[in-house]
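Title: Comparing notes on inverse folding

I've been comparing how different people in this forum approach sequence design from structure. To keep things fair, I'm posting one structure and asking everyone to reply with a full sequence. Here's the target:
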């Protein structure tokens, strides 16, 4: 939620900041703005709507040259997405400019204090309050770093704040509490960003910050202190992907590019997981074998697509380890007072590593002495940092708001975790684990095969441009796939879409079926015949009521053909791994349908890539 950029160096700050905002726009696109420090004054511009509106405003009324600046792209929380509420916000005398991600919970109280003291606030935001407070501090003689330390002590809630002072072009100062911020380390220049894509064009050296820290960047250095003023050191790391990963590479959408990257992303997520003697080895598994042997219950917490990855993980974990698994929406978890202790392993799945609901859930779990293992795609993000162990997914940056390669690589990480636990607990023989690893290593090739049939799926999508409702049915590991297919369609095409466990259909949802209703059916592989046959009955039931059945069926399964209006062929794979191939046509379908409907596929309405507020 909200993208933030800060820069100090030798280049034109406006160019660096706008380019950074372009790469962060997926985090929020309700408005955008910049503030530069030029000749002892602030030069600012901000506009409601997408970044393009800001760029047009700057083209019409150019900002002065400057080498220090900040920028913001907003996902609105307090106040409508209009020009006055867009960031940056300035203090009363327009000396300090500030951008903010998060929510300042005590802003009403602070606002009334400022108004009583004669301050006139121009927006409805919580952010402007912080800008006024910061300016009061610098006006009374503090430098911007000291001022920030004084102000954060007065704020409650979650925030990243980044500020500049018109009278001190040498520095940009930021504060972080429960909201993302990373530092980019350059030569004669330094950067701040909500994530590394903000500055990847300029440097791949980054510094991870902890919670409750204030960072000051100048041309020549970076200094970090805790909110109590004590010096702190961040963890420095090298970003292992480059600018090309953050570009569309000839595709119309990042999402489409990311769908086609899935074979590679899956292969990368499997790399280096086996020792020469054939044992599974997970680098970032910081839990000892004894701690894992003590695990007698697993609770998976996640949101959205990551939650559906968790649902698939339950089948694999229970099957291979015989440990009971619960899967829970992170936003609900701590409010039900879950039963946790030291022998419960909590697995938090998050592509971004910043989802506030998931973060709060893991904090709750750790207070109950449970160990937390994160499955995450973002190095340097908060969730892995606050977890006891982590499995990174190696999907590369996922920029499309709708998760695709993030999902597939989360599935891979879940399978790896399940197999690793089975190895440590001895619930599967080594040769069985070896066999599944071999099957997993075949999956990139199978995904390629599904992608090679993309044109038929695109054609199908174009036939559905006037469709207002779509159902998805699945069983077993195909049930979360149905849910994910429906979520993709809701997010991108803005139409009614629902996923159901096929067996549940007759208990109510079948009433939705009417003539011509498209129903996607994820058919379990042959060999799981009971499961598959029951699915076939479900397909017959909806078809008998006039539904148009679109069946995702493994090759060679011709028994389904009489009941399918459309057949999408899937490669032959084991039932537990089928989600890795079955979800791909559903992603292609949603991407293409949204495209022909004229929607912005990468930045769907009302959404943001990383949801950093609860
Ligand atoms: O970054 P996370 O995996 O924690 O994000 C969780 C959800 O917000 C995310 O999966 C969301 O549902 C996506 N937009 C789905 O495409």
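Reply #1:
Here's my take.
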């Amino acid at each position: 939620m909200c993208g933030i950029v800060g820069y100090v160096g030798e280049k034109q700050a406006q160019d660096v900041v706008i380019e950074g905002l372009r790469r962060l726009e997926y985090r929020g696109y309700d408005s955008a703005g910049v503030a530069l420090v030029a000749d002892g004054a602030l030069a600012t511009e901000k506009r409601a709507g997408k970044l393009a509106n800001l760029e047009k405003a700057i083209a019409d009324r150019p900002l002065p040259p400057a080498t220090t600046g900040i920028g913001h792209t907003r996902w609105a929380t307090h106040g409508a997405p209009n020009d006055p509420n867009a960031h940056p916000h300035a203090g009363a005398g327009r000396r300090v400019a500030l951008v903010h991600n998060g929510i300042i919970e005590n802003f009403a109280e602070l606002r009334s204090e400022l108004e009583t003291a004669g301050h006139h606030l121009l927006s409805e935001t919580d952010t402007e309050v912080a800008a006024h407070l910061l300016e009061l501090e610098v006006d009374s003689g503090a430098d911007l770093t000291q001022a920030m330390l004084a102000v954060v002590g007065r704020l409650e809630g979650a925030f990243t704040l980044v500020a500049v002072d018109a009278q001190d072009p040498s520095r940009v100062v930021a504060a972080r509490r429960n909201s993302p911020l990373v530092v980019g380390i350059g030569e004669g220049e330094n950067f701040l960003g909500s994530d590394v894509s903000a500055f990847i064009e300029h440097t791949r050296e980054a510094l991870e910050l902890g919670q409750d820290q204030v960072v000051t960047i100048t041309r020549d250095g970076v200094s970090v202190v805790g909110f109590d003023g004590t010096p702190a050191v961040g963890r420095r790391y090298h970003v292992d992907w480059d600018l090309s990963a953050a570009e569309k590479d000839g595709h119309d959408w990042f999402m489409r590019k990311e769908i086609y990257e899935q074979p590679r992303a899956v292969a990368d997520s499997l790399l280096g997981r086996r020792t020469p003697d054939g044992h599974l080895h997970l680098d970032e598994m910081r839990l000892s074998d004894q701690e894992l042997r003590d695990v007698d219950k697993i609770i998976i917490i996640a949101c959205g697509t990551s939650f559906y990855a968790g649902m698939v993980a339950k089948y694999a974990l229970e099957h291979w380890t015989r440990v009971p698994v619960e899967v829970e929406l992170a936003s609900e978890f701590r409010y039900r007072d879950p039963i946790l202790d030291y022998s419960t392993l909590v697995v938090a799945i998050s592509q971004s590593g910043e989802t506030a609901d998931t973060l709060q859930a893991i904090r709750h779990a750790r207070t109950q002495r449970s160990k937390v293992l994160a499955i995450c795609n973002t190095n340097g993000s908060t969730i892995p940092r606050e977890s006891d162990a982590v499995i990174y997914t190696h999907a590369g940056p996922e920029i499309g708001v709708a998760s695709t390669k993030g999902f597939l690589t989360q599935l891979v990480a879940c399978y790896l975790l399940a197999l690793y636990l089975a190895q440590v607990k001895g619930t599967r023989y080594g040769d069985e684990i070896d066999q599944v690893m071999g099957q997993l290593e075949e999956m990139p090739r199978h995904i390629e095969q599904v992608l090679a049939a993309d044109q038929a799926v695109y054609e199908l999508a174009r036939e559905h441009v006037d469709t207002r409702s779509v159902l998805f049915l699945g069983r077993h590991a195909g049930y979360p796939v149905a849910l994910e297919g429906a979520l993709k369609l809701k997010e991108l095409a803005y139409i009614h879409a629902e996923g159901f466990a096929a067996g549940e259909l007759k208990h109510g949802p079948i009433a939705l079926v009417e003539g011509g209703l498209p129903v996607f059916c994820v058919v379990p592989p042959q060999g799981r015949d009971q499961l598959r046959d029951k699915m076939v009955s479900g397909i017959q039931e909806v078809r008998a009521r006039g539904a148009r059945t679109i069946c995702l069926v493994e090759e060679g399964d011709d028994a389904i053909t009489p009941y399918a209006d459309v057949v999408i062929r899937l490669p032959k794979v084991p039932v537990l791994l089928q989600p890795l191939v079955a979800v791909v046509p559903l992603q292609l379908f949603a991407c293409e349908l949204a495209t022909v409907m004229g929607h912005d596929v990468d930045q769907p309405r009302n959404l943001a890539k990383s949801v950093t507020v609860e």
